Predict the 3D structure of the following.
Amino acid sequence: MAGAAPIAAEWLARDPIDVAPVLLGKVLVVGERAVRLVEVEAYAGERDPGSHAWRGVTPRTRVMFGPPGHLYVYRSYGIHWCANVVCERDGVAGAVLLRAGAPLRGIDAMRAARGDVRDRDLCNGPGKLCQALGLDGSFDGADVTGADPRIRLLDDGTSPNDDPVVSTRVGLSRGVDLPWRFHVHGDPNVSRPSGRGGTIVG
DNA sequence: AAGAGGATGGCCT
DNA sequence: GGCCATCCTCTTC
């Protein structure tokens, strides 16, 4: 992990559709636990009918309209937490949903949080990822670029995203045809093999 | 003030 | 593959 550098907020201040595939392989560190991101989805704010930000600012989506480099955490189905990295400049909504990760460190803590499941099932879904890492509503708005001691998003220089797979996003009722899901080809920690139209873009 | 529905996951068959 | 738990947010009346 030597040489790992924090992701800079300026680097995230652009279109989440461009940011998302490059986030594959980056490392999310929460306390003693860490994962390498293997599956993400782009949500393009007010121009994306699938985004929570589609209808404009609300108390829930406020963070997504704020500066890049913060975490947008929301409750899903009243049960799970899901986490996004906010993109675009301050005032413009955009985010990348973190859907799955490969456990790197703190696997015992993840097992304790997730119960008796196979290791590949620890972080293979947005709700599972948050549960494994201990992410909840208290992380909504948290800075992942270094200002918040609890959490950090790092680039450790490895590039397992040489052949990301592009497909449609999962679980939506609007914007279902947009090819804005990206995952690492063949990674066992991906939530599902592919959405519709999965194609490898070397 | 009330109701519908959701960027899911776990357990069932 | 289907069902449903569980609750918050947003929309509408």
Remarks:
- Residues 41, 43, 50-52, 74, 76-80, 82, 84, 97, 99, 125-128, 131, 169-173, 191 of chain A lie near DNA strand B (CB under 10 Å from a C1').
